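Q: I'm writing up a methods section and want to include an example of the input and output format. Could you take the sequence below and give the corresponding predicted C-alpha coordinates, formatted cleanly so I can copy it straight into the document?
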Amino acid sequence: MGKVFIQGLALAIAGVVAIALNQLLDLGLGSIGFGLLVGGVLGLVSDGGPVGRIGGFVVGIIVALVVYIARVLFLNDSFSGQVAAMVITLGLLTLVCALTSGRLPLWSALLGTALVVGAYETSFLANPANVTSELFQYTTMALLPAALGFLVVVFVADKASGSEPSESSDSEHNTSEKKPTK
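A: Here is the clean output for your methods example:
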Protein backbone atom coordinates (compact mmCIF):
# COMPACT_ATOMS: atom_id res chain seq x y z
CA MET A 1 0.00 0.00 0.00
CA GLY A 2 2.85 2.38 0.81
CA LYS A 3 4.39 1.83 -2.60
CA VAL A 4 1.21 3.05 -4.30
CA PHE A 5 1.27 6.27 -2.28
CA ILE A 6 4.94 6.81 -3.10
CA GLN A 7 4.33 6.25 -6.82
CA GLY A 8 1.34 8.60 -6.83
CA LEU A 9 3.26 11.26 -4.89
CA ALA A 10 6.28 10.93 -7.19
CA LEU A 11 4.06 11.30 -10.25
CA ALA A 12 2.38 14.38 -8.74
CA ILE A 13 5.76 15.96 -7.96
CA ALA A 14 6.95 15.20 -11.49
CA GLY A 15 3.81 16.90 -12.83
CA VAL A 16 4.44 20.02 -10.74
CA VAL A 17 8.07 20.11 -11.91
CA ALA A 18 7.00 19.65 -15.56
CA ILE A 19 4.44 22.47 -15.28
CA ALA A 20 7.00 24.74 -13.61
CA LEU A 21 9.64 24.01 -16.26
CA ASN A 22 7.08 24.53 -19.00
CA GLN A 23 6.23 27.94 -17.60
CA LEU A 24 9.82 28.92 -16.79
CA LEU A 25 11.28 27.84 -20.13
CA ASP A 26 8.16 28.70 -22.17
CA LEU A 27 8.12 25.26 -23.79
CA GLY A 28 4.50 25.50 -24.90
CA LEU A 29 3.60 22.01 -23.70
CA GLY A 30 -0.17 21.79 -23.69
CA SER A 31 -0.71 18.17 -22.74
CA ILE A 32 1.37 17.88 -19.58
CA GLY A 33 -1.20 16.18 -17.38
CA PHE A 34 -2.40 13.88 -20.14
CA GLY A 35 1.09 12.87 -21.22
CA LEU A 36 2.29 12.41 -17.65
CA LEU A 37 -0.61 10.12 -16.81
CA VAL A 38 -0.19 8.05 -19.98
CA GLY A 39 3.51 7.63 -19.18
CA GLY A 40 2.63 6.74 -15.61
CA VAL A 41 0.34 3.95 -16.77
CA LEU A 42 3.02 2.69 -19.14
CA GLY A 43 5.44 2.57 -16.22
CA LEU A 44 3.05 1.01 -13.72
CA VAL A 45 1.91 -1.99 -15.74
CA SER A 46 4.66 -4.58 -15.70
CA ASP A 47 3.19 -6.88 -18.38
CA GLY A 48 5.60 -7.21 -21.28
CA GLY A 49 8.76 -5.94 -19.57
CA PRO A 50 10.20 -2.47 -20.16
CA VAL A 51 11.41 -3.13 -23.71
CA GLY A 52 8.13 -4.71 -24.81
CA ARG A 53 6.06 -1.94 -23.20
CA ILE A 54 8.09 0.82 -24.82
CA GLY A 55 8.21 -1.06 -28.13
CA GLY A 56 4.45 -1.49 -28.22
CA PHE A 57 4.00 2.14 -27.20
CA VAL A 58 6.25 3.34 -30.05
CA VAL A 59 4.42 1.08 -32.54
CA GLY A 60 1.14 2.64 -31.40
CA ILE A 61 2.52 6.14 -31.89
CA ILE A 62 3.85 5.34 -35.37
CA VAL A 63 0.61 3.69 -36.48
CA ALA A 64 -1.40 6.69 -35.24
CA LEU A 65 0.88 9.15 -37.06
CA VAL A 66 0.63 7.18 -40.31
CA VAL A 67 -3.15 6.85 -40.06
CA TYR A 68 -3.58 10.60 -39.46
CA ILE A 69 -1.61 11.32 -42.63
CA ALA A 70 -3.66 8.69 -44.49
CA ARG A 71 -6.85 10.36 -43.22
CA VAL A 72 -5.85 13.58 -44.93
CA LEU A 73 -4.58 11.96 -48.12
CA PHE A 74 -7.06 9.14 -48.70
CA LEU A 75 -9.93 9.28 -46.24
CA ASN A 76 -12.31 12.08 -45.43
CA ASP A 77 -13.76 13.40 -42.18
CA SER A 78 -17.11 11.76 -42.81
CA PHE A 79 -18.49 9.03 -40.60
CA SER A 80 -17.21 6.35 -42.96
CA GLY A 81 -13.74 7.95 -43.08
CA GLN A 82 -13.50 8.02 -39.30
CA VAL A 83 -14.69 4.42 -39.02
CA ALA A 84 -12.17 3.32 -41.66
CA ALA A 85 -9.35 5.11 -39.81
CA MET A 86 -10.31 3.45 -36.54
CA VAL A 87 -10.60 -0.02 -38.08
CA ILE A 88 -7.28 0.36 -39.90
CA THR A 89 -5.55 1.57 -36.72
CA LEU A 90 -6.88 -1.24 -34.56
CA GLY A 91 -6.22 -3.81 -37.28
CA LEU A 92 -2.59 -2.74 -37.72
CA LEU A 93 -1.95 -2.64 -33.98
CA THR A 94 -3.50 -6.05 -33.47
CA LEU A 95 -1.57 -7.53 -36.39
CA VAL A 96 1.81 -6.17 -35.30
CA CYS A 97 1.34 -7.25 -31.69
CA ALA A 98 0.08 -10.69 -32.71
CA LEU A 99 3.04 -11.19 -35.07
CA THR A 100 5.42 -10.52 -32.17
CA SER A 101 3.72 -13.30 -30.18
CA GLY A 102 2.84 -10.86 -27.44
CA ARG A 103 6.36 -9.49 -26.96
CA LEU A 104 4.84 -6.14 -27.86
CA PRO A 105 1.72 -6.01 -25.67
CA LEU A 106 -1.41 -4.80 -27.39
CA TRP A 107 -2.33 -2.63 -24.40
CA SER A 108 0.90 -0.61 -24.70
CA ALA A 109 0.37 -0.14 -28.45
CA LEU A 110 -3.17 1.07 -27.73
CA LEU A 111 -1.74 3.45 -25.13
CA GLY A 112 0.72 4.88 -27.67
CA THR A 113 -2.10 5.47 -30.12
CA ALA A 114 -4.22 7.01 -27.37
CA LEU A 115 -1.42 9.47 -26.64
CA VAL A 116 -1.42 10.73 -30.22
CA VAL A 117 -5.21 10.74 -30.59
CA GLY A 118 -5.74 12.43 -27.23
CA ALA A 119 -3.17 15.11 -27.94
CA TYR A 120 -4.12 15.81 -31.56
CA GLU A 121 -7.68 14.75 -32.52
CA THR A 122 -9.38 18.01 -31.55
CA SER A 123 -6.89 20.09 -33.55
CA PHE A 124 -7.14 17.68 -36.47
CA LEU A 125 -10.90 17.97 -36.62
CA ALA A 126 -10.64 21.77 -36.47
CA ASN A 127 -8.20 21.96 -39.38
CA PRO A 128 -7.11 18.71 -41.10
CA ALA A 129 -5.00 20.62 -43.63
CA ASN A 130 -2.47 21.48 -40.89
CA VAL A 131 -1.61 17.84 -40.29
CA THR A 132 1.98 18.19 -41.51
CA SER A 133 2.77 21.09 -39.21
CA GLU A 134 0.71 20.20 -36.14
CA LEU A 135 0.69 16.41 -35.88
CA PHE A 136 4.30 16.01 -34.80
CA GLN A 137 4.16 19.16 -32.67
CA TYR A 138 1.17 17.97 -30.63
CA THR A 139 2.56 14.45 -30.36
CA THR A 140 5.88 15.72 -29.06
CA MET A 141 4.13 18.03 -26.62
CA ALA A 142 2.44 15.00 -25.05
CA LEU A 143 5.39 12.63 -25.47
CA LEU A 144 7.81 14.64 -23.32
CA PRO A 145 5.64 14.50 -20.19
CA ALA A 146 4.81 10.85 -20.97
CA ALA A 147 8.51 10.01 -20.91
CA LEU A 148 8.84 11.83 -17.60
CA GLY A 149 5.86 9.96 -16.12
CA PHE A 150 7.25 6.63 -17.28
CA LEU A 151 10.72 7.29 -15.91
CA VAL A 152 9.48 8.53 -12.54
CA VAL A 153 7.16 5.58 -11.98
CA VAL A 154 9.76 3.02 -13.08
CA PHE A 155 12.44 4.67 -10.92
CA VAL A 156 10.16 4.66 -7.86
CA ALA A 157 9.20 1.02 -8.53
CA ASP A 158 12.88 0.05 -8.75
CA LYS A 159 13.68 1.86 -5.49
CA ALA A 160 10.78 0.17 -3.72
CA SER A 161 11.48 -3.24 -5.28
CA GLY A 162 12.27 -4.78 -1.92
CA SER A 163 8.55 -5.37 -1.52
CA GLU A 164 7.90 -6.54 -5.06
CA PRO A 165 5.84 -9.75 -5.29
CA SER A 166 8.14 -11.13 -7.98
CA GLU A 167 11.14 -11.01 -5.67
CA SER A 168 9.30 -12.56 -2.76
CA SER A 169 8.08 -15.39 -4.97
CA ASP A 170 11.64 -15.95 -6.21
CA SER A 171 12.92 -16.14 -2.63
CA GLU A 172 10.14 -18.57 -1.69
CA HIS A 173 11.20 -20.92 -4.49
CA ASN A 174 14.86 -20.74 -3.53
CA THR A 175 14.60 -21.48 0.20
CA SER A 176 17.10 -24.33 -0.05
CA GLU A 177 19.87 -22.04 -1.29
CA LYS A 178 22.41 -20.87 1.24
CA LYS A 179 22.83 -17.17 1.74
CA PRO A 180 26.22 -15.86 0.61
CA THR A 181 28.59 -14.89 3.39
CA LYS A 182 30.51 -11.67 3.41
